Amino acid sequence: MDFSFTPEDEDFRAAARAWLKAHLVGEYAEAAGQGRPGSEHEAGPVRHRWERELGRSGWIGIGWDRTHGAYGNREATLTQQVVWAEEYARAGAPGRVGHIGENLLAPTLLAYGTDAQRHRFLPPVARGEELWCQGYSEPGAGSDLAAVRTAAVRDGTDGGTYRITGQKIWTSLAHEADWCFVLARTEPGSVGHRGLSFLLVPMDQPGRVDVRPIRQMSGTEEFNEVFFDGARAEAAHRVGAEGDGWRVATGLLALERGVSTLVQQIGFAAELDEVVRLALHTGAADRDPVLRDQLVRAWAELRTMRWNALRTLGGPGGRTEEGAPSVAKLLWGGWHQRLGELAMRVRGATAALGPEDWSPQRPYELDALQRLFLFTRSDTVYGGSDEIQRNILAQRVLGLPREART
Fold it and tell me: Does this UniProt record's set of keywords contain Lipid metabolism (predicted)?
């Protein structure tokens, strides 16, 4: 297949590269590379300002479907979205704080929302002003979203609002978000996929929305528990029909691994380069032929993942073919986890040591490769575990019967 870019794409690349070079200065340059997965605690205020800087120049939401109007973002083809993602990652720009609103909420509203919802919520996302989080997983419903128990009932006074009660967990960036899209059960007594609705919920509801950070073994707190105690959501902010939340929620998951997968892979390449550099510097690659083979294999697998992602991209909003998101998740989850293990193998015994400038005031500081190893232990679980992805492929792509439940 031809994976080359057109002259128009290369012109777009030059414009993106020039803008990044001109704007990644001062405090933004100092925050370069900070705020990546596992390190979302870094440079928070600066990254919020950077989000608005991107918005002012129209770099948020490039390529959004304009069938229903424009929302302050640039027009771009799918390949130009890939170009922007590549240049952003290569520039080492700060980790995004608005990616959930841009890459998950926005395509969902474009596909399933009303015009009123699009014009209310998309412009603030495009300006970098409103941040979002995702309210899916629960203590008893992680990858199995059909087991969601968070309930939403119509307010008895006018029926124009819902009252939401329940708990969500592993909610990324909930402590910073202005809004949360919540999958809740709106039909009492319903089970499984039926009776669920997709609601847009404001987070600024003191006494009704309580966010509690979850401390990771890496020492960071980017994930949260969120408790809803009669939290209000307007009925006009329900996406799709009442009880149709499963279709909307699964549609969102299909959008989750589009162009953003390529951004992720460029970050992976930088991590792999660091591991290879360390292996050469310490002589580990010369001493251990098995390790050397594993490093080469990791490079080849990463290139294969890139070609696979480019091959499967297509359709509005970066939609991919049936089953492709599950294949992508299985590929990168296992690959990234093995990279973390390789990093520790290259480090050898020193991987267990803390920083040289350790002090009682900083008893739990990790370097980048130690964080990589610890954080990647979750890669095959969050965002849909490997077991769930294999079930999706078996049932929806291969047509195999559903596994019997005991």
Answer: no
